[in-house]
Amino acid sequence: MKRRVVPALILATVLAAAGCQETPKEARNSVNLYQVGDFAGAEAQLRPVIDKKDENYVLNNCRYGSAAIAAGDLPGAENSFMAAYNVMNATHVNDSGRTTGAAVFWEGVKVWTGEPFERAMAHYYLGVVFLIKHDYENARAAFQNSLFKLRAYANVDDPKHYEEAESSFAMGYFGLGLCYSRLGRDDLAQANFALAEKNDPRLVGVIRDVQDPKTNAIIFVDAGMGPRRAPKGWYNEESAFGPTPAEAGPIGPAELIVDGNVVTHEGETYHMVDTLAMAQEQRWQDIDTIRKTKAVIGTGAMAAGAGVAGYGASRHDAGTALAGLGIMAVGAAIAASSQADLRYWETLPRTVYVLPASLTPGAHEILVRAGGSQSAPLQVNIPPASPGNRQDNVYYFRLLR
Fold first, then answer.
1. Could you give the angle at which helices 57-71 and 74-88 cross, rounded to 10 degrees?
2. What are the tens digits of pLDDT across the range 334-357?
C-alpha cells in the first residue's frame, strides 16, 4: 500500500505546485489594462496585493511601478520600485525552506527577483524617478546598483565555472555620468560617459547633448513591449525569452516634438536599451541546471521502473512489478517537478529612448513619436535658469506600439 500511496502523494504535490504557476487574477488584469494604455486602471488592480509578502512581492511591485510611472503617480512609482530594489539587493532572500522546496518540487515557491536584465531595468526606473525629483544623489545610487557584476559563462552547459564580468548596461553608465555631471563631479561624469559610449558607441550624440549647458530638458521614453518567457524542453524544464530582435524587427527612430516642431536631429540615435537583445544574452540570464538535472533523473527513474516492472511481470512477481511501478511514479513526479518558473516582468519596454532638448522658459506642449506610435501631448512649464544651480526638467513617456 505504501508503495502506491507515497508516489501518488508526491505526484499530487508536484502537480498542485505546478498549478500555482498561473498568474494571479489581479496581476493578469493589471497587465491587460497596462497593455491597452490604461495605466491608472492597471495600478488600481494591483494596489490590494503589492504589500503582500509572498513569492510574487517583487514582481508585483515592478508591475505596479511600471503602471504608476506611466500614469504620472511619482510617489507610487518610487515606493514600489524602492520595495523591489530593497529585496533585490538583500541577501538570503530565498531562505533554506524556499530553496529546498524549489529543488524538490517547483521553482515558483522561490521569491521572484528577476533575471539580471530585469533587475537592471528596475534600478533604471528608480533612477528615473529620482531624476524627475531632481534628487541626483539617490538617482546616482540607483544607477550605480544597476551595474552589478555579471557572470560570464564559458559554456552554457557548465554554469559552475564562470568569471565575473563588468556590466555592459550602457544606460547605467549614462545615468551615472548624468548624475555626476549635475553633482559637480566632472571627472567621474566623463569616466562613466566613456564607459557608456564604450558599451554602445551610438550614444555619442546623446552624451554630447546632455553635457551642453543649453540643455534643460531630458525626456525618457519607454517604447514597445519587452521579451516574453515561454517553456521549452520535454517537461518544460527550461524556459526561453522571445521574440529575438531579428524577429521583432529593428528599433525605429524617435522624435521629440515641441510646439508642433521636431527638435531632435534627423538620423541621431537616441535609444539606450534593447531588452529583447539583453534577454538573449547568456550573461543577462541566470543559468540554473537543477531543472535539467531533475528532468534527467526523472526520465532515468521512469525507464528503470519500467524495466523492474517488466521483469516482475515476466516472473509473475507482483511485489517486484509494483516496486517498478512505484519507481516509475517517483520518476514521473521528479520529471514533472522540473517545470521551469515562467514568471517574468510583462510590462517592460522593448527599448528606452533618451531625448535631450533646449527649451526656452515658459509654457510648451511636448509629445513623442517613436516606433509608429505617438504620445498624447504634455503641457509643461520650463522655469528660468537659476545661476549656479543646474536642474534638468525630466519627463517620462510610455509608448506601447
1. 150
2. 445 446 788 999 999 999 999 999
